[in-house]
Amino acid sequence: MKKLMGTAMMVSAIALSSAATNAGEIAVIVKTTSSNFWQNVNKGATAAIEGQSEHTMTFNGPAAESAIADQVNLVENAINRGVSAIVLAPSDPEALAPAVKRAYEAAIPVAIIDSGLAEGAKGTYQAFLSTDNCAAGELVAESMIDSVGTEGKVAVMSYVAGVGSEIGRVGCFVKHLEANSKIEIVGPYYSQSQMATALNQTTDVLAANSDLDGIFGANEPTAVGMGRALVQAGKAGKVTAIGFDGNGDLQDFVRDGTLKATAVQGSFQMGELGVKAVIDVLAGKEVNSFIDTGVVLVTKDNIDTPEAQNVLY
C-alpha cells in the first residue's frame, strides 16, 4: 500500500470503447449492506451520482462479509446485465479477481475500494481507493504503546482472515508492536465481521487473560462486540481498548471511555470518489491508479472537531 502511495503514478484511462460511449448504470457492490460503514459508502456514492445526469447508480452487497460466493454472483450479474461501470469492495482478494477480469474483458471499467485484489489482478481495474491500512495499523499500534507502555499483554480481535484490508491493518499493527515493544500478543481472533461473535470471543479472551493490558477491535462489528464485552465484564476503561471505524456505537464508547480511541476511515469518500473515478474513466479522462481516502484517530479530546466529524457516521 505504501509503495502504491509512493509511486502514485497517473495512468491513462484504458480504451473501453463500448462502455465509454454508453451512459448507464454504475453498480456499487460492497462487502455487506448490513453495516453502517458500508451504508456510509452508499451515501458517498449517492452524492457523486447526484452531481451528474448521465448515469444511474445501484448499491448492493451480500448479507455478510463472509458470504464471498454471493458477492461474486453480484459482480457476475452486473456484468451480465451490461452495466457501464462497477465500484467494488472485494471481500476476498483471490475469489473476486476472476470476476473483475471478466468485467475488464467486457470493457466495463472497475474501481476497487477498501480492500485490494490479488497481485495477479493488476491491470484489470482502473483505480484503487482505500485507506493506507498498513499505516492505519501502525498508527493504532503506536497509540496502544503510548497507553500501555512497551511491556504487557494486548489482544487482537480481527475480522476476516486474508482480506486485503485485514492483512495490512492487523498485520502492520502486530508487526509494529513486535518491532517497538516487548508486548505479548494474544490472538488474533476472527469474528467474520459478526458483532455477536466478537462479543463472545472478547468475553472469552477477558476471562482467560485477567492481566490483559490492551485490546484492538479491527473493524466496525468487531469493535462494537469488543466494546460491549468490555462493558459486560466490568473492564470498560480498565483495559486500553482501541477500535476501528466510526458508527454511533463506537462514538458512544469513545465518549464514555470504553474506547481510548477509534481509527476512522473515509468511508463516504470511498463511495464518492470511487463513483467519480469510474465516471472519469467513462469520459476518457485520466485517473490516479491509487487514491488514499485517509484515516483519523478519533479520541474523546477531538471527537467534536471538524476533522473527526467529517469521517464519523
TrEMBL record:
Entry-linked SUPFAM superfamilies: Periplasmic binding protein-like I
Full protein name: ABC transporter substrate-binding protein
Record flagged with keyword Phosphoprotein: no
UniProt keyword list: Signal
Main location: other
Family statement: Belongs to the bacterial solute-binding protein 2 family.
Any Pfam family the entry gives: Peripla_BP_4
Localization, UniProt: Cell envelope
